[in-house]
Every structure is written in C-alpha cells, then in structure tokens.
C-alpha cells in the first residue's frame, strides 16, 4: 500500500480488527498523489506538462 513497514501493524495494543479498520478507512498514498496530479493538470495543464 506504499506505507512503511509496521505503520499500522507495529502499533502496540492495536487489535487486528482495529488494524484492518485503520487501513480500510485510509487513502493509499500513491492513489492520493495520482489524484492530486490529475486535478492539478486539469486546473493548469500548460504549467504542469513540463513537471
């Protein structure tokens, strides 16, 4: 998912159910970055084409 090892599973006292809930309610970082790039390209396509 693009998260560092132990980001959720290495939290002491967090149950398996809570780990799955935390992961299920989050946005995958790569998907968020892709969405932001897409939105930026729609706002100003000429400036972002060279980036």
How would you describe this protein?
With 51 residues, the protein is mostly helical. It has one domain (1-50). 57% of the residues lie in helices and 0% in strands. The longest helix has 15 residues, at 29-43. The protein is elongated and about 50 Å long. 0% of the residues are buried.
Radius of gyration: 16 Å
Tally of separate helices: 3
**Total strand count, please?**
0
The figure for the number of domains is 1
Share in β-strands: under 5%
Estimated helix fraction: 55-70%
What is the mean pLDDT? 82
Gross morphology: elongated
H and E string: HHH
Question: Ranges with pLDDT <50 over ≥5 residues?
Answer: none
Brief summary:
The protein is mainly alpha-helical. The protein contains three helices and no strands.
Which helices and strands appear, and what pairs or packs with what?
Elements: H1 16-24, H2 29-43, H3 45-49
Keywords:
single chain, 51 residues, mainly alpha, elongated
